[in-house]
Amino acid sequence: MFELPKLEYAYNALEPFIDEQTMTIHHTKHHQAYLDNLNKAVAGTPLEQTAVEDILKDLNKVPEGIRTAVRNHGGGHYNHSLFWKMMAPGAGGQPSGALSDAITAKFGGFDKFVEQFSASAMGRFGSGWAWLVSTPGGMEIVSTANQDTPLSEGKMPLLALDVWEHSYYLKYQNKRADYVKAWWNVVNWKYVEELYKR
Predict the structure, then answer these.
(1) Which of 85, 107, 140 is the last residue of a domain?
(2) Cα 162 from Cα 145, distance rounded (Å)
(3) Distance between CA atoms of 162 and 178, rounded to whole angstroms?
(4) Distance (Å, rounded) from C-alpha 170 to C-alpha 123?
(5) What angle do helix axes 97-107 and 110-123 make, rounded to 10 degrees?
(6) Residue 129 and residue 121: Cα distance in Å, rounded?
(7) Model confidence over 3-34: pLDDT tens digits?
(8) pLDDT of 137 over the 90 cut
(9) Domain presence at residue 14
(10) Which of 58, 85, 112 is the last residue of a domain?
(11) Contact 83, 144 (CB under 8 A)
């Protein structure tokens, strides 16, 4: 039985960048719905006792009859669980240490990285995510549709930005670019650095 993770901050803690109403609905309604549907899909199967990461790493092992539901709702649960931790009040700024060095080496500097990551978020048609991932070959920016996760492609997520309209529409309406720009002010680089070290 998968459960909704508690947020490590109040629903209004990311104001003015991410508004309280959006955070409340996003966490208690959208994330909860992914969980409810995931739990329904895996009820009575061994997947109930399997870590969601392990399920998503090998979707071919999921019985065909529930594979699409598990991919969508398991992905929704996993992606959001990460997303909440990748934001924090009073965060933003730039990463430090090994992560900063790796970003500079790969993208030619932090500003160029922000530019490319933001372009990936803006370029995702419809609903989906922008990601910074770690791969056997290093690091790259990717984008996924719907609730697909890079885990399913053997890539380790380091940074994730939700660009489904429900993550910004109440405050930013159709102005995704304004949301993406504002989001950099709440990125929890400490958590991203932890993921990178692993």
Answers:
(1) 85
(2) 10
(3) 14
(4) 21
(5) 70
(6) 7
(7) 999 999 999 999 999 999 999 999 999 999 99
(8) no
(9) no
(10) 85
(11) no
d(CA 23, CA 135): 31
pTM here is 0.95
Rounded CA separation 78/51 (Å) = 10
Q: Which of 149, 137, 192, 146 is nearest to 57 (CA)?
A: 149
Same domain? 109 vs 71: no
Q: Which residues span the domain enclosing 159?
A: 97-197
Cβ atoms of 87 and 19 closer than 8 Å: no
Is there a single domain that holds both residue 77 and residue 105? no
Amino acid at the residue 69: A
Q: How far apart are CA 67 and CA 73, in angstroms?
A: 10
Which CATH number covers residue 123?
3.55.40.20
- Which one-letter DSSP state was computed for residue 192? H
The single-letter code of the amino acid at 112 is K
Instruction: Supply the CATH number for residue 73's domain.
Output: 1.10.287.990
In a domain, 52, yes or no: yes
The tally of domains found in the chain comes to 2
